């Protein structure tokens, strides 16, 4: 398994518009991405930081996603700024013990 944290900031868009233009339409599409186990949507309005914590079947699935047309479309949106991605190997044994995985 592989984990990924993607963050970004918003510019010139309200929270309601962001939810309507990005979160609501993208969530069902992301749910169908091959190799994606889960995505947790993250929001910190006070710091203008948004993003997601992704859990992938493997690093290849994450890399395929990062080179997809979907990601290209998301990062090209004029209201999405300062996109950052950090990824990690998952320690499955320890994560099972601490209920991070089922």
Explained architecture:
This protein is α+β, with helices and mostly antiparallel strands and 102 residues long. It has a single domain, classed as Alpha-Beta Plaits, CATH 3.30.70. 36% of the residues lie in helices and 35% in strands. It has 4 helices and 4 strands, in the order E-H-E-E-H-H-E-H. It has a 4-stranded antiparallel β-sheet. The protein is globular, with a radius of gyration of 14 Å. The chain starts with a strand and ends in a 5-residue tail after the last helix. The relative contact order is 0.28. The model has no long low-confidence stretch (mean pLDDT 96).
Structure at a glance:
The chain is built from four helices and four strands; from the N terminus they run βαββααβα. It is α+β, with helices and mostly antiparallel strands.
What strand order characterises the main sheet? 2-3-1-4
How many helical stretches?
4
In angstroms, what separates the terminal alpha carbons?
13 Å
CATH architecture identity:
2-Layer Sandwich
CATH topology call: Alpha-Beta Plaits
Estimated share of beta-strand residues = 35-45%
**Radius of gyration based on Cα positions:** 14 Å
Pfam family, one: ydhR
Protein name: YdhR family protein
Organism: Solitalea agri
């Amino acid at each position: 398994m592989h984990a990924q944290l993607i963050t970004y900031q918003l510019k010139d868009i309200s929270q309601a518009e962001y939810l309507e233009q990005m979160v609501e339409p993208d969530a069902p599409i992301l749910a169908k991405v091959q190799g994606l186990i889960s995505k947790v949507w993250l929001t910190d309005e006070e710091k203008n930081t948004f993003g997601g914590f992704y859990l992938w079947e493997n690093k290849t699935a994450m890399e395929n996603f990062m080179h997809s047309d979907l990601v290209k479309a998301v990062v090209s949106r004029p209201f999405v700024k300062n996109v950052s991605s950090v990824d990690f190997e998952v320690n499955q044994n320890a994560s099972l013990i601490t209920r991070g995985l089922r």
